Amino acid sequence: MIKRTLVIIKPNAVKDKNVGKIINRIEETGFIILGIKMIQLSREEAESFYYVHRGKPFFKDLIDFMTSDKCITMVLEGNYVITNIRNFVGDTDPEKAKKGTIRYEFGDDLSKNAIHASDGIETSKFEVNFFFPEFSWETGKL
Ligand code: CMP
Q: How far apart are the first and last CA of the chain?
């Protein structure tokens, strides 16, 4: 079933010049990039985007890191894209991620794990709409 999801290439992967390699893998794996932007998140934006983690011990570090430099945000589309992209990015902790996944290859640690991907349908709707209202599930033809 065709769906959409949001991916963020995080500041460590941008600083390490791994954007091209990661995008190449996304395309070679067959995901369609519907929209793409380079942005630097404000604290307010990062705190709103990651609102589900508010109050957790790692929240401040997460916000500090995600606002520290530029990110690449993307909307991807494809068959079963939400599940498929989660397998493609790997475990949240790069040390536990399977060989060949993006976090295994490009992640430094649990915080600097190179990439974010929406973890379910509801999250994906919220996250796509957050950065790309023009591609929201409600407005775009799926
Ligand atoms: P991400 O997919 O962007 O979603 C929330 C982020 O919080 C997660 O990736 C990690 O980079 C970061 N994080 C830092 N510490 C933890 C933790 N203990 N558990 C889960 N996520 C963490």
A: 9
